Amino acid sequence: MHTNVDHQHEADKVRTTWQWTEVPVPCCEACHTKHQKCSRVFIISLVAGWILGIPLGALICGALSDYEAGRWDTGLIVGSIVGAIFLGPMVGWAVGWLAQQWVQARALGSTRPWDDCWKHPAVRALQEQGWRRGKGPQNT
User: What is the DSSP letter of 131?
Assistant: First the structure.
């Protein structure tokens, strides 16, 4: 929010100054709980996907290794390492992101709209003192 807007005319330009502040508006308990749920779903899905990536990498590299030469066990070991380092994080992030999007679409749809922050008592008090919305005046 901003206030004390001052326009000073100098030679060929106008210099605008103002005072601004941020007003912390906490989430209500219901919305905070829904946001925490989304974060937990992402982390749990990320870990589950990472764990899933290790055997997936082992299976892929084991299947691509040379069975006739008897080297499939090396393929499983290399695949496990590849799965843990590369495939696991990628699968984990994708699974986590998809799960979070799914939960957000269902849980966060019922949260309060952003415009409700302007109804918060701290914001209302500043508005009554002449403060305006935004970090500064428009068109500056």
Answer: -
Please identify which residue in the block is written with the tokens 């499939």: 72
What are 79-102's pLDDT values in tens digits? 777 777 887 888 888 888 888 888
How far, in Å, CA of 111 to CA of 119, rounded? 15
How many independent structural domains does the chain possess?
A: 1
121: in domain: no
- First vs last C-alpha separation in the chain: 15
Asked if the structure places residue 129 within a domain, the reply is: no
Give pTM, 2 decimals: 0.52
CA neighbours within 13 Å on the CB side: how many for 115? 0
Instruction: Tell me which DSSP letter residue 114 carries.
Output: G
Structural domain that includes position 51: 33-109
